[in-house]
Amino acid sequence: MSDRQMKWWGWGAEGEYLDVSDKPYLWSFVEQVTGVSENSPKTPLPDVEKIDFPPQTLNRAYLTAIARDLRADQIKTDKMERLIHAYGKSFRDLLRMRLGIVEAAPDCVVYAESESDVEAAVKLAVEHDVVLIPFGGGSNIAGSLEVRGANGRMVVSLDMKRMDKVLEVDQNSFTARIQAGVLGPHMEEQLNAQGVTLGHFPDSFVYSTLGGWLATRSAGMQSDKYGKIEDMVLSLRMVTPIGTIVSRTVPKCSNGIEVNRVCIGSEGILGVITEAVMQVHKLPDCRASYGYLFPTFESGAAAIYECVKCECRPVVTRFSDLGKTALSFAFKRRPKGLKGIMTKAVMAYLKLKRFDQEKVCLMIATFEGDRKMYNYTRKRVNAIYRKHGAVNLGTSPGRAHERTKYDFPHIRDLCLDYHVMADVSETSTVWSNLLPLYYETMKSLREALSAVADPYFLGCHISHTYHTGASLYFTFGCRMQKGREIEQYLFIKKAVQDSFMRCGATLSHHHAVGVEHLPWVAADVSPTGLKAVGALKSGIDPNGVMNPGKIIPSESPLKDWGLSEESIANFRGASR
């Protein structure tokens, strides 16, 4: 798995795609919300050989020096390697690839196989003034892998996937020392063989690495139980331009500013994380996912809050509003035999209970643990859900979710095939602000979408919950305007991010800053907080060789982001 790469133009490996043959409701739903049908013309992929690349800058002194430390098969400068490592998987990244636009690309790809390889790559980058961008699975959707600020220097993509071992599991302490380049499935295979799990399962799990999770402060589907990635780290090692940061493996400490937290979320602008000691957990004895229908979004949110207040939560709580519920049902397989009869019975029951089908919302809840805890939590949560009007649909929707939970990124590829935009923006806030934030952001997104498209799709779900608040995850889509695709997308993206800032939420709960969220960093962390980040950057990386142009915005961030005031005015004027 260490050399497994995603296709350059989309999600997943070559040959992987979203199979819609068993989803009979999907195309009618897509046509309803975008106006595009299965018979609409598809957009062909560009010929790789005809894609214009920026001129390749090769620093011969750097290449000669690093060839003394690494084998020839660890250093690659061919076009396909450059293409695969040019971008991540943000909507803007994929759209540019589909249009055959490669505005910037690394000049060389180096495959690290040990920490000494990383130290050599970083040390020589400083000596020869070469830009270095750490690369894990390539799944980042915030533009964190894009080449920015090279200023004529050679750019090296440092691919970490060959550093893919679980080095040690301490069964007494429930810790595991793990190399940063390991992909999610390969890591879990190694941990499961010793009876433990990390418990971190983001949507990108199949194609993302431990180092990427740490560098972007990732959240997994089961963060309700296990926490976000920063909650799992005991210690780490990060190679920087001024040396290697090494923290001590202890459960908690009081030793000044925490070095782990300086490294986690740094998105490669300070150095390269090579390994970490993570807390792990015994594999659960029991696990099952259930589906529930709530009469309204508000009733489901109230039920989730009561579970949190009572300290009785599922390990996964995924609650969809009307729009996302409709998408989930459109994703279903066709029910057969008894299942079909049961579905009709459920609909009749909902009618009997006077559920308004224009407001009904789907909850997926997963329970796990030893048998006693599993049964206790499930029964108590069920009672709370019933109190708020929920109908238990059993395990069938839960099994469907488990079967397809890593498929959703493929939907963007399907949409792009038909020149349809599909993307997400997520945030977090405290409980008292959750519904006001939801209402305001949905209003802002409706206004922006209606200005640039008709019809369109809009939905939201609560994806992660905590003692003090939760994450809201918005999904939107529409047909793209030929020749104005990027501007159209950024106009919508700006509306949602502006709403987050107005409402006191954060710019991202787990997708990172990269370049896609640069215009909102100062508002989020405060101008003084941004100065502190800048001081760290200049102190650890004084020559600016580590992934420049990320996290710290320019003096004109919105313009550099790609959206002009003229474009904003034009879209708004067209809507009037």
Describe this structure in words.
By secondary structure, this protein is an alpha+beta fold. It has 4 domains: 54-159, Uridine Diphospho-n-acetylenolpyruvylglucosamine Reductase, domain 2 (2-Layer Sandwich); 166-282, Uridine Diphospho-n-acetylenolpyruvylglucosamine Reductase, domain 3 (2-Layer Sandwich), CATH 3.30.465.10; 286-404, Alpha-Beta Plaits; 409-575, GMP Synthetase, Chain A, domain 3 (2-Layer Sandwich). The chain contains 21 helices and 18 strands. It has helices at residues 26-34, 60-66, 79-84, 91-98, 115-128, 184-192, 210-216, 223-226, 259-263, 297-309, 322-330, 337-352, 371-387, 396-404, 409-417, 434-452, 485-502, 521-525, 527-540, 557-561, 565-575; strands spanning 75-76, 108-111, 131-135, 155-159, 166-170, 175-179, 196-197, 233-240, 243-246, 272-279, 281-282, 286-294, 316-320, 361-369, 391-394, 420-430, 456-465, 469-479. The strands form 4 sheets. The protein has a 7-stranded antiparallel beta sheet, sandwiched between helices. The protein has a 5-stranded antiparallel beta sheet with strand order 5-6-10-8-9. Strands 1-2-4-3 form a 4-stranded mixed beta sheet, covered by helices on one side. Strand 8 and strand 9 form a beta hairpin. Helix 10 (297-309) packs across helix 13 and helix 16 (434-452) runs antiparallel to helix 17. The model has no long low-confidence stretch (mean pLDDT 94).
